TrEMBL record:
Record keywords: Disulfide bond, Lectin, Secreted, Signal
Superkingdom of origin: Eukaryota
Protein family according to the UniProt entry: Belongs to the FAM3 family.
InterPro entries: FAM3, ILEI/PANDER_dom, ILEI_FAM3C
Compartment(s): Secreted
Species of origin: Labrus bergylta (ballan wrasse)
Name under which the protein is recorded: FAM3 metabolism regulating signaling molecule A
Region forming the signal peptide: 1-25
Length: 209
């Protein structure tokens, strides 16, 4: 390979420049610290924020469960349910489906069959995907209301919905979001935007311990 004259000149300049930078880095000088940062990958300054369970920005207090719910995006991207840094439901795990995606203490198949006999204190995590409302009958909505939902009564075709409830809850759940399907505000064609919710759930018997 033969360099032409201009290319050789450029190469010499680059070699001289790199020699000067390395000399400053090794022996000090005003630019030494900057050069060391450059080669160490720290030139951008601020460190990455610490990651807590399920991607929370702060740790949960003792005797609390960290969670994150993400509803599906349109009918393309599946929902996610994370509890205590364990991904329970996701497209990667290949266990999502259109409608309601629900995570309980034990895996179950049929909505009404497992919502009716839930034990006191059981936590229920719900994330919608595509359309969760069309096939939901009055009994299913009532059971979700008993778990603390206030939005399920009005849940409609292709609404986005994330919810955490509990069997035997005394008040309405503070962990619930609903995004209405509306042509004027939909992010996707025919679907509202995906919802994301996270937080810390206080433990109670029999989950405590």
């Amino acid at each position: 390979f033969i360099w032409t004259g201009p290319l050789r000149a450029v190469a010499v300049l680059l070699l001289v420049g790199l020699t000067w930078l390395l000399a400053n880095s090794l022996f000090g000088g005003e630019s030494g610290s900057s050069v060391r940062y450059f080669f160490s990958g720290k030139i951008h300054g601020e460190p990455h924020p610490r990651r807590y369970k399920c991607g929370l920005t702060a740790p949960c207090p003792p005797k609390h469960l960290a969670f994150r719910l993400v509803s599906g995006a349109a009918n393309v991207i599946g929902p996610k349910i994370c509890l205590e840094d364990k991904m329970l439901v996701s497209s990667v795990k290949n266990n999502v489906g259109r409608g309601l995606n629900i995570a309980l203490v034990n895996d179950v198949a049929d909505l009404l069959k497992f919502l009716r006999p839930l034990h006191e204190g059981t936590l229920v995590f719900v994330a919608s995907f595509d359309d969760a409302a069309t096939k939901m009958n009055d009994e299913a909505r009532r059971l979700f209301e008993e778990l603390g939902s206030t939005a399920v009564k009005e849940l409609a075709f292709r609404d986005s919905w994330v919810f955490v409830g509990a069997k035997g809850i005394e008040n309405k759940s503070p962990f619930e979001q609903r995004m209405k399907n509306s042509k004027s505000s939909n992010k996707y064609e025919g679907w509202p935007e995906s919802l994301e919710m996270d937080g810390c759930i206080p433990l109670r018997p029999p989950l405590e311990g």
